[in-house]
Structures are given as structure tokens and as C-alpha cells.
Amino acid sequence: MLTILFVFALAAASPVAAQDVEQKRAMSGAPRYEYEVASFKTTKAGGIGFAVRLSSGPDNLSAANVPLILLLQQAYGMQPYQISGGPDWLRSDRYDVEAKIDRRTADALKKMTPEERQQTRQRMLQTLLTEKLHLEVRRTTKELPIYTLVVGKNGPKLREADAAEIAAATIPADGPAALPTDASRVTFGPGGATHEFSIPGENETVAER
């Protein structure tokens, strides 16, 4: 069974209702677990070519040249084949996104475990997509064919690698001389880990924290 996310476009929410909710939250003094301010702008044609950037800092979310389907993947922890429906611009149009978290919420997030923080940040992004783009999703399950890897009738063709083959496949302690075009690289810094990778044949680089 595979979980599928169906996406729908909704009409704009009532501004009066949204304002009432916001006033109640402000009076409670509790962290909102929402982005305080956010902007979605269409990426300027030819601005940064094929480059796609998506990073999440302690108090912000920043993305450049991203299709919104990628943000849906991040928000719901889904793979592309698990998302169905939605308007065409969800996959075709590219956007620059900047979202800021208020200090109280950012401080509360720092006190969470990594798992709790990831789940909370996902819910925050879900709320952002609902409020800004008026999207709604519905989860369901679907049966798909599966495949089993079995040994052929003539037996396995695997053999143990010899010493020379193991040595050739081992990365030196000081790292490889050069990264191939389809390689991944992870850099660790004060703000967390930044993952950069390129997609073979696409000339596309993605960086994510």
C-alpha cells in the first residue's frame, strides 16, 4: 500500500476569520508555530538558470527558482510519485520564497528534539502553502505492483571482490581528487548541514539544509 497525496486548489480564505484567529493567538502569548511573514515571487526568467536552492535556517525558510511541487514534498515528506492532482502551475512555474519565524517561535523550536522540530517545521510549511496558495490536500492509500529480487534458476553470479578491486573503490582519507558530475557533497557549518547535489543530464544543482 502506498500513501498518495491529492492536491486541490481552493478559494481564498475569509480575511475576517483569519484576523480573528490571529488576535486570539496574540492574546495567548504561546508560540504560533507559523511563519511570521512570507513572500512568494515568480522567479525572473533567466535570472539564475537551472539552479534550485532550498534552505531552512533556525528562523527562516529561503528558496530560489523552486517549483511548488518541491515545497509540497518538503511539507509532507512525500516523493514526487506520491503527489497527484493540483493545478499545472504547481509543477511548471518557479518561485522565490522568503519566510521568517518570530523570535518566540524560533526559541521554542530550538528546545525540541530534532524529530519534533522537523515535524513542526513541516506543519508550518503546510500552513504556509494553505494560506498563501489556498491549497488543500487529502491523504489516501493505493495498491501498486511490487517486485521481488530472487535468485535465478542457475544460481547467483556474485563473487567476492579481490584486494585490488576493494582498493580501487576506496576513497582516500584526504578525499577524492575531483567530484564527478553526479556526485553529492555535504558541508557542515554553524547553521547545520548543507547538502548539494547535481542531477545527471539536467545541469541542475540543489542545495538544502
What is the count of β-strands? 10
- Sequence stretches where pLDDT stays below 50 over 5 or more residues: 10-22, 178-209
Q: Provide the residue-averaged pLDDT.
A: 74
Q: What is the CA-CA span between the terminal residues?
A: 30 Å
Order of strands across the main sheet = 2-6-4-3-10-9-8
As a whole number of angstroms, the C-alpha radius of gyration is 22 Å
For the largest beta-sheet, the strand count, sense and barrel status come to: 7 strands, mixed
Q: Give the class from helix and strand content and strand pairing.
A: alpha+beta
Order of helices and strands: EHEEEHEHEHHEHEEE
Integer count of domains: 1
Strand content is 25-35%
- Write down the overall geometry: extended
Number of helices: 6
Name the helicity range: 25-40%
Report a brief summary of the structure:
The chain is an alpha+beta fold and 209 residues long. The protein is 30% helix and 31% strand.
Question: How would you sum up this structure, described in words?
Answer:
With 209 residues, the protein is α+β, with helices and mostly antiparallel strands. It has one domain (2-147, 187-208). Helix content is 30%, strand content 31%. The protein has helices spanning 15-28, 68-76, 89-92, 103-110, 114-133, 163-169, and strands at residues 2-9, 37-42, 52-57, 60-67, 83-85, 94-100, 135-142, 184-189, 192-199, 204-208. Strands 2-6-4-3-10-9-8 form a seven-stranded mixed beta sheet. A three-stranded mixed beta sheet has the order 5-1-7. A hairpin with a 4-residue loop joins β9 (192-199) and β10 (204-208). α2 crosses α5.
